[in-house]
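User: Assemble these into one structure.

Assistant: Restating your components, then the assembled model:
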Amino acid sequence: MSKDIKNITEDIMNQIEQGKIKMKPRVYFIVGSILTFIGLVSSLIVSIFLFGLIRFSLRTHGPMGEYRLDQIMSNFPWLTIVFAIVGLVLGVWLIRQYDFSYKIKTWFVVMGFILAVMVAGWVIDSVGINDTLLQRGPMRGMMSNYFNNNIQHGMGWRK
Amino acid sequence: MTDIEKLTDEELVEKIRSNDYNLYAVIIDRYKNKLLRYAVNIVHDDDKASHIVQDSFIKAYINLKGFNINKSFSSWIYRIVHNESINIIKKYHKEVSILDDFDFGSDENIEEDFEKKEVMFKVEKCLKEIPLLYSEPLSLYYINDKSYQEISDILRIPMGTVAVRINRAKKLMKKICQKI
């Protein structure tokens, strides 16, 4: 038997008695769990909103109401996509911290999360939450900026 | 058998968390040899394995109040050893061969099933020839006597994946280890 393993109990108990190793308080773990949950919910909300915004931007059309690919491409919020993807990755990583997640195949968790975010993004845009945010709410400035920039390019939105 | 020895791991943890820290020695004595065997099967080096087990017990003690008492302590401590072992492997980028005369002071019950004993012997002998992805669930199943559910909890993979990996490991063993 390894020499080290024989003394392992004594070594560790000495360290505990001398106060060299101490248990972290329960509150540390409670705060950790709360922060993880808040992080997960935040990333979910941000991703859903950004996907809603992407769909909102895809409704852009020319002065006569026609869809123009060049307009959509030039005004497409590419940075929003990057943020949405970062939100998704963060959300999936946080969801993997929960015990239930490893009982399901990773791809199911990833695809389920992406699908849920995209469907929720589509729903909030369809029910007009983005239009409401355009007029009031915490995202008003960002939405108005996007809206005004596109107005200057002679574009509108199709419901 | 004393009253302390009759207590389950989870009951002991509950007492340790309520300032009866001396009982942590009982936990260490219950698990040190099993965990050493497990760590050796991952890193193939007895000194590194000893350090992994010691560090794992220290980490477990520090985070003891974060352990969910409704879950298995055994799976939790094995998970810590798994993580520590993987960190060591990543750190050294290579696995060193296990010493042939390495002796485990086993306090486990001897397997009654001869067939399983035979498989266990073969598993230990050729485990280091199999990739870690397959050797780890195999060692947990045959050497550490863990169920599929426990292996799933330790490796944090679905039970179906555990079954697939053990199955593939057996096939690999048949191919590779027949030469040994």
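The mean pLDDT of chain A is 76.
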